[in-house]
Specification:
By secondary structure, the protein is an all-alpha fold. It has one domain. Helix 4 crosses helix 5. The termini are close together.
Length: about 70
């Protein structure tokens, strides 16, 4: 699978490993089961929740060993 970027969707991340949900939950993204959130990019989700997309991408890359 391609490397995680700000353009990667939440659904793509969670399909790789559901345990990655904790990183979204840590920054207040509680709506991970919502169908809309699955198609939302990391960048879009962070913008809506007022968080830093680069920091989340870094955490996810470490999680997946990228």
């Amino acid at each position: 699978m391609a490397s995680i970027t700000k353009k990667t969707t939440i659904g793509e991340v969670l399909s790789r490993d559901l345990q990655a949900a904790k990183y979204f939950m840590e920054i207040g993204m509680q709506c991970l089961g919502c169908p809309h959130s699955q198609a939302e990019s990391i960048e879009e989700a962070c913008m809506v929740h007022g968080t830093n997309a680069d920091e989340l991408v870094d955490k996810l890359k470490r999680h997946f060993g990228e």
